[in-house]
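Issue 218. Parser rejects a valid record. Input:
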Amino acid sequence: MRWKFQQLRSSFSLFIIITFVSCFVTVFIYISDTRYLYDHSSVTTCTMLDMEIFVEQLSKLNKLNDNNIKERIKHFGPVLDAIVKSLNISIPKELKSLMVTNKSVEIVRSPMTHLDGFTFLPQLWAHEDNLRPFILHSGGRKTVSMVYGIPTVRRQKKNYLIQTMVNIVNNMNQNEMEDSLIVVMIGEIDREYTQRVTTEIKNRLPEAVNSGLVDIIAPTPEYYPDFSKLRLTLGDSRDRVSWRSKQNLDYAFLMMYCQPKGSFYVQIEDDIITKPQFHTIMKNTALQSIANGQEWFILDFGELGFIGKMFRCSDLSWLIQYLIMFYNDQPVDWLLDGIVETKACGYYKMNCRRLKDNLWVKCNQTLFQHIGIWSSLPGKIQRAKARHFNSRILLYKNNH
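Output the parser choked on:
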């Protein structure tokens, strides 16, 4: 008698498996196979009828309270649940409870953690719109060859922004201006100040602004973290950690705005001058290197800091994420060197310098010169100059 009961229980289990597999195959063919011509209405009717009969039989088996049967229902539960939902078939409550308790399947179906800028800037979690800029001015220009990013902030002693912008525009011909976009990112949350800078740019460079050559943006106040709560790193003071951390976030914000607007992105500063036809020189160098099959991450046309660094816009995502991840840890030029070393060098750093030089290509011509003296960091004086820049370039003199 006991042997017969075991045989009967095995038969029930076998019946469940065979019936389930048959129904699953039928539904799978119905849903996914579009290579053959079926009478879909008849297939749907047949499939639903089969499944309704199967669910009814499964409910009867479940009422036997056989643990072996219940375990098998649990094992196939999530897949069976997906099938009955696709056919809009109702099932008994006690049966449904068994179909959603399979932990191993649920783990596979659970969503993976999505890592992006919000992961490292938790102040943006509740308000994603805070990652969007205030557009202080835009001519709507996009799909240009070259996008020039100029981050600027308030300086205590002297502001060089207008001097820089006039020099850049004066060193472009008409074709170069039509093939470019200059984006000024005012890294301040004081709306009165950002409007004042915007008005000054419009007044001093009306043709460039009206032609669509210049966009002016600013971040929302909520974009920035509470700088007073940042970790103190590298033995720096609170003020210096806040200053360099904010600079990293400003650069990332500027790059996010510029990335979809052109083919190449060039990072410059708000206290530089450049050489005539710098645009054509940089563009031709980039296109020639691509034609030659050269794998580069940076084309470097400046000797100092982040000045004159050229990237493919498609590569900016790497740098944006890197700056956001480590904004509190290191200055921006250190992070730039760090990402290149990570991309180029192996664990043992063999031939690391040569491998980095293949990705960070120092170009023959230095096209940008640093002219600022008073840093945006209060109390800091920056007298560094590019050694190979042609000193015969005339500076724009502010006579106003």
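Fixed in the parser; the record now loads. Residues 1-8, 25-44, 101-110, 391-400 have pLDDT under 50 and may be disordered.
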